[in-house]
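Hello forum,

I keep getting stuck at the same step: I have a sequence, I want structure tokens, and every attempt I make locally crashes halfway through. Rather than fight my setup again tonight, could one of you with a working pipeline run this one for me? It's a single chain of 309 residues.
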Amino acid sequence: MISLLFRLFITGIFLLSVKNQASAIDIEIHCKQGSSDLVQLAYYYHSGIFLEDTLFFNGDGVTRYTNSDIQPGIYLLVFNDSLSFEFMITGNNDLNISFNSLAINNMVIGGDKQSMAFHYYLTHHYLSNRKINNMQQTLKKTSTGREEELSIRQKIKTLKDENLIIVDSLTNLYSGRLLGDYLQMTRPPEIPDTKINRQNIHGQDSLNWTERIEYYKDHYLDNINLNNSGLIRTHLLGNRISHYINHVIPQTPGELIAASDKILDKCEENKEMHIYLLSYLLNHFSPTNDKPEYNKVYLHLKQKYGFTN
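Reply #2:
Ran it on my machine without issues. Output:
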């Protein structure tokens, strides 16, 4: 279960993308009678959540959604303003979703193996993190002996290790597909230990730290497949690109231009992703912004990529 304030807003610049991976789907949703009269189907786009449709349950607690032109991505079933459940649409495979009660561990998905694997990941991640949080609260609030504390910390480590194993396994199993690319995107770049011998150089630690920052900047996009447009309809991609532009890249025109070109070069094979990211960058560096250093970046993007409103 994901708690959030359900926000529906319109930001036209991000809805310019063309549709090039649309597919047909039939989703049947079963909900225990009396649990809810309706459910809203929504999807992520950049940093927002948008309404796809409102579905009404019949007297048997069943509703159906059919669409011959739906895009891959992570969608949500929203039962009220604070209760929603994510699921993944990957292609033409139909889905059957049922709830014995409105809780993620009582949600069952059938039909598409990739969607089922995503739900397994979410469920395990949610239940595991709940256990970890409870144990961490125990360590904070309760006076435990040294032996008991070590035991709890080992259990926490074991749960975290299990989470990583599941992510690694699913990433490898679905490599190059939406689930694999999504899970790969959750990983930050791994910065190797610097092995440079500077024993006689004053400020060795500062030099090593600078190298690590440069490596992080140069490899930040390595785990993001910008040719998979299904990632547009996840909550992660917009956050990753925004963080990269605003916090990883030095805020000078030259650095920002190089970073923008790097982003657009990595998605040149996918028209939808290219338009989406170019729209984002033009909006971000728009001259209406109060940062004068953005003007050169905006002009560069318009001149090089020929975008017209």
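The first strand starts at residue 23 and ends at 31. If your local run keeps crashing, start a new thread with the error log.
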